[in-house]
Amino acid sequence: MTFVTVFIILVTVFAGYFTRLLTISGAAAAFIIGSLITLGLGVKGLIILGLFFGSSSLWSKIKSVKKERAEELLVKGSQRDWQQVIANGGLAAISSAMYYYSNDFDWVIGFCICLAASNSDTWASEIGSMSKGRPVDVKSFKRVARGTSGAVSLLGTSAAAAGSLLVATGAFLLLHLELNELLFIFILGFCGNIIDTFLGAFVQAGYQCPHCGLKTEKMIHCGQNTRLIKGFSILNNDVVNFLSVFFILVISLLLSGAN
Ligand SMILES: [Zn+2]
Fold this sequence. Notes:
The chain is mostly helical. It has helices spanning 3-18, 24-61, 65-71, 82-102, 106-128, 154-174, 179-202, 237-258; strands at residues 136-137, 151-152, 206-208, 215-216, 220-221, 224-225, 227-230. The chain has one domain.
């Protein structure tokens, strides 16, 4: 890892901080993740990370009235803190470091799948929340408010597929992969988003405001503590994102090992 690369990572995370895409803790976490990715995969790894970070940041800057209402349900805004950064990039960084130590190419594919899954999930939420119709909860099959975790829409699901495909295609071109590896990354990245949706519907913490009745992921609303009405309090959105990437990484390593 050269001084120049470290400098590029530093400039990027500072830019992320000053453009309010990252909090200060998010910038610190992004620096560590960027460094670990460079260690195993060099600048090409950073570019693949950049595809995820750049495209999801771009979508998060596109606002609409529907999206603002959807964000009312979420705990955090578009400025990412360390927990969100680790939930989305932590396992990709670990995969890159594992490749550095083991030289086993399965970790490179795993790295790409982690980022494809995170990109898939981010595109699904950022674009899906602008959907015309309300999404359908995969547990109750009822229409729920836009931005609800565990709910799907045609727009969100298409965005999830496109988000995974972007990372898979970027990796295919940069890392000179085989076509079947592109497909493997694309499909598993998309499946990562499906796991995220099901965890979101069945186990993720959901709260309701006792004052206004809003169903939200926030623990405080209208100045009062909200009540847990579904899932487990420990399983917030960041933990669910991390777990879904973790599960899809394990599945990818099992499937690669079987070949
Ligand atoms: Zn309220």
